[in-house]
Sequence to fold (331 residues):
Amino acid sequence: MRYNTLKLTMLLALGLSGTQAHALGLVALPDTGFSSSAYTSCYNNGRVVPPTNADDVKGNFGSYPIAGANQPSTSKNNTCFVAKPFFENFSPVSGYTLVGNRSTVIPATTGGGGNIGTLVDYVWRNSAQTMCIFGTRVTMNNADHTNGGSIYKYFEVNDIARGGFSNSGTVNVGYTIFRTTGNTSPLYRIGRTFTSVQHRAYKYDTLLNKQVNGLNYLDLPTKNNVSSAITGENLPLADHTVASTTLASQDAVANSNWVNFTTKVTFADSDTGSTFAISPFTYIQAPCDSSSPNTWIKTGAIRLRQTIQEVGSSLKEITVDGYAPPDATLP
Fold:
């Protein structure tokens, strides 16, 4: 009852409802997802698949270069987008103070060695000490993640999943972009699910083929049966090969304990020839309490997933510790 009351108060204060919201600022993400998908569109909102409008392909999940004029901003393409705070350690919502701050090396494998990137993890709390905002940013290094493999490969973060929200009811989510160095990918969709769903373009040989989805690939997955960490075709693609999957694999059941952000972060991107080394800064607003965030750090609270959008990759998950709500249960 306490969390339901807090949830209602939070939503009323922000002028949001438990439906898909499409406007600048944090949007509501219900614990059961939406009517046909656990995911909602963010930067993808309003995407028109060619040949109807070749200027509005919205990057096709990072397969196609985004024109500067189409970048998310406070004035356009801003679903789920939050006006950038003055500094990244400032809250995206007024009235919140930074109470937790961690920086974690991303290993080449879960629990292993190496240093392929850095994850920054923040917590802001309101003055009533009843609501918190959990923030995450990933920066990838010029580093191989194959532990001495014969081919040098960059790990690509296609999804960032955060756990521990099963008692939070509807949470509010969003992102912003801090272009401190290099380029930053937008956030394409956000889901109330544990499952990261692979997305591929039709082919990776020409710009025309990169604009459209592969066979059976969906912008918004269904939510029927799949509950695994990653779903998709676990095999690399040659750039001239048609990407194809089954509709059954384009699925992710709703899971109230997890929030999944789909983006594209890699030091060197073979799809577009660009650098997307820095992730968008992701936000989750959820109930919390007055206890110390130092006690909220949970093993495996954050999952970084590579879902093989890049040519020649493999499905892979790297888990790192992170903040979660004080009543969180993981996994």
About this structure: Residues 1-21 have pLDDT under 50 and may be disordered. The helical segments are 2-14, 207-211. Residues 2-14 form the longest helix (13 residues).
